[in-house]
Design brief:
Elements (H helix, E strand, L loop, with lengths): L5 E8 L2 E11 L6 E6 L12 E6 L4 E15 L3 E13 L10 E2 L1 E5 L3 H5 L4 E5 L5 E5 L5 E4 L5 E11 L9 E11 L4 E2 H19 L8 E5 L5 E3 L2 E3 L3 E5 L19 H4 L3 H14 L1 H11 L6 H19 L7 H13 L7 H12 L6 H11 L1 H4 L6 H17 L11 H23 L3 H8 L7 H12 L1
Antiparallel strand pairs: 1-2, 1-4, 2-3, 3-6, 4-5, 5-6, 6-18, 7-14, 8-13, 8-15, 9-10, 11-12, 12-13, 15-18, 16-17
Helix pairs in contact: 2-4, 5-6, 6-9, 6-12, 9-11, 12-14
Amino acid sequence: MDSKNEYQGMWWLPEKPENKFVGALTFPQNEGAELRIIGCFDKHNLLEPIIILGETTDGKKISLINCIQTDLRTSHPGGETSVFEIDFIFIGVHFLKIEDVKFKSLSVHFSYLDEWLDFKSLNERNGANGEIIISFKKPGSVKTKLKDGTEITIDIVGNIVHPPDMHTELRLNSKSFIIIKPQQEKSFQEFRGIIRTIQNFITLALGEEVSEPLSITGITEVNKQLIGGQPYNPPVTIINRFVKSNNHKKMMKHKMIFSFDTISHRFSAFLNTWFENASSFKTIFDLYFGIKYNPSLYVDNQFLNCIIAVEAFHRYDVEGEYLSEAEYETIRQTLVDAIPASIDKFHRQSLENRIKYGYEYSMIKRLSEITQTYEKNIGMFIDDTALFNKQVVDTRNYMIHNTHAPKESVCEGKDLIILTKKLKLLLEVLLLRKLGFTEEETNNLISKHERFKLKYIENSVILSYI
């Protein structure tokens, strides 16, 4: 290994272990993982191998998953060079086929996890004769179980960092991990779904984007060894294609919507509710957290994501029908029969499709019900719900249908940014309430934060335009 983010070694395809090539795997922070080999697996085609195996110069086994060949160069002299982009790197194991990529457990560390948990593990005190005593005391682990039997454990590990000059400097730090252990082995793809659900949970709690895991280690049966007659599974280090920097800014507890301490006595119930909601609210989660993890999205896209998520929430929470589909059938048929026979067939199909769902609530009806139901939680940032509802629906219709010139209630420019910010906060309130916080608890949480206040929203947008 030449550096922390580079491995030199031999590389081959699982189905052709006899054809090995010298090469280097690099994965610099925020730039993407790349394998460059001297030679080629195929002289005529750019390949997309599911798996490439490797062994480093110091004997580490590596599996590269989801590989795409981006270049094949031939030079004289020098020969061929092949370049591959890599999605996932597994250090410490050889997976011969994709079905083997399974784990018994994964240990994950996220950005801001230490701050969110705020477990006190490091202590210092003055001893006699100028002695300074610094110690790490491991707090008790937090353990809970999801309804499918998956164990979730929060653990703290202490670590001594040895700088080059140990005579003048010594560092002791602690790091938090979330350990996921299902009842039986799961594929890495299944684990990724669990990881993303936990990532979303912490993102909501912080009100701040939590990036992809900064570190993942896993235990798999594939690399099981016998040491002294006892089975041992060496931990496998898992690296995402884009390695994130660990130098994220620190987050103070008062900036969070809620800390672990706020829900520690209800953590198990809240986490189980969140996982249940993750299935029912998949569309809502994908749309809302898609914005949180991609803040550079155009404001138009953010607005549309939000309004679709709000509508999906109402459909799940209330359903929203003027009458049942069966009761509406007679009315539907009457309306369809009233369509003139002389109109174009495509026009007829369009009208029939509009009539088909006439028993469902309109967008304005859905939004009005939501803002009325949660009125006491959203008053800090929506002072006129009737105007807000009209602006949201008219702006949405204008964007989707590109109707005539903008009306007074259609928002553009900084007004659209303000409206979108309000929609995001509305979604956060809905998610907090569905997580299990009461109306009063939700008000207590959000009242402490400037970003939930209307004047702060308006001023922040105005300042961005200066």
